[in-house]
Write a structure and sequence with these properties.
12 helices, binds molybdenum atom, binds the ligand Nc1nc2c(c(=O)[nH]1)N[C@H]1C(S)=C(S)[C@@H](COP(=O)(O)O)O[C@H]1N2, 12 strands, seven-stranded mixed β-sheet, five-stranded mixed β-sheet, 331 residues, Sulfite Oxidase, Chain A, domain 2, alpha+beta
């Protein structure tokens, strides 16, 4: 178990330097920048402020104007009442290895990322495979604001007001065939635009997956914005996945491909370190990471640690998906 108050100098070394010095151990990457970093970052960057350059999202549906709708949304997990993390923190403390392994360096490294002409191919075991231009895809449904807790496997967390719609709306549009059991996602592969891909820190492109029933759950969000604006590059522009009851690494960014498939797809982090990161990656305070406890978390912007909740506080909504599944074996 780690003690966040005892920060060794090794843990405070920027990951890039750490890799060079240690001659780089792939499975140590996430851990090298784990729990301690959240505390360090918070001390340097008091909460508040922050601006975003991306355009405001027209027609964003925000149920908070209506008390009754808001209560319903809170019960369904669509809007947590937890305090929202500042825009500054959400956009300057990022994991996005395609740009940088330094959380505080991602924003600058991704600032000029050009998403003009973005397309998303949706296919595999579906009746109506299709390559969507981004706007066509976004026009499937108006964006809704969803306020979700996000818990990174490293032990820090945030509360983010996302904008987007349920992934189920896209999946229904392409009509999954009965043989489809999983959904496989792929991020952009383009080392010219994503400089981190010139290093072999991970196998590119970044890939992720969900069971089809998880993908169809109404909380599973295809996000195109946050804080009422289009997604900034560092948060996964122009389109990313958000699965609030799972560790943050399931939330694949800058998606270009979605395939419905019959067998469980490979996923980037479980490929990189299968003993440490599983396919399910459900937030679970009772199942520790082999190298640190998952019982508590550092909420960015808060002091001290708070207990981590089963399924990140979404048990009421999603626990039924895992009835009969051994959550220790299927971590
Ligand atoms: N393509 C891609 N998606 C990714 C990552 C990444 O490195 N590449 N990092 C993941 C991890 S570990 C986390 S915690 C979240 C971080 O999202 P945020 O930076 O918007 O908070 O993105 C996830 N999605
Ligand atoms: Mo993460």
């Amino acid at each position: 178990m780690r003690d966040a108050n005892k920060i060794s100098s090794r843990e405070l070394t920027p990951p890039a330097v750490y890799f060079n010095r240690r001659n780089f151990i792939r499975t140590g990457v996430l851990a090298a920048s784990a729990a301690a970093t959240g505390l360090f970052y918070r001390q340097l960057n008091p909460a508040g402020g922050g601006t975003v350059d991306t355009p405001a999202l027209p027609g964003l549906i925000r149920p908070d104007a209506d008390a009754a709708a808001n209560a319903t949304a809170a019960n369904s997990g669509l809007r947590t009442a937890d305090a929202q993390t500042s825009l500054q923190d959400i956009t300057h403390y990022n994991n996005f290895y395609e740009f940088s392994t330094d959380k505080e360096g991602v924003a600058a490294a991704a600032a000029k990322f050009d998403t003009t002409g973005w397309q998303v191919s949706v296919g595999g075991l579906v009746a109506k495979p299709r390559v969507f231009a981004l706007d066509e895809l976004l026009n499937l449904s108006p964006p809704e604001e969803r306020v979700y807790r996000m818990r990174c496997v490293e032990g820090w967390s945030m509360v983010v007001p996302w904008a987007g719609f349920s992934l189920s709306k896209l999946l229904q549009a392409v009509e999954p065939l009965p043989a489809a059991k999983y959904v496989a996602f792929e991020s952009l592969l383009d080392p010219r635009r994503m400089p981190g891909q010139r290093s072999r820190v991970l196998d590119w492109p970044y890939v992720e997956g969900l069971r089809l029933d998880e993908a169809l759950h109404p909380l599973t969000l295809l996000a195109s914005g946050l804080y009422g604006h289009a997604l900034p590059p560092q948060d996964g522009a122009p389109l990313r996945l958000v699965v609030p009851w799972k560790y943050g690494f399931k939330g694949i960014k800058s998606i270009v491909k979605i395939n419905l498939v019959a067998a469980q797809p490979r996923t980037t982090w479980s490929d990189a370190a299968p003993e440490e990161y599983g396919f399910y990656a459900n937030v679970n305070p009772q199942v520790d990471h082999p190298r640190w406890s998952q019982a508590t978390e550092q909420r960015i912007g808060e002091s001290g640690r708070r207990p981590t909740l089963m399924f990140n506080g979404y048990a009421e909504q999603v626990a039924h998906l895992y009835a009969g599944l051994d959550l220790r074996a299927n971590f």
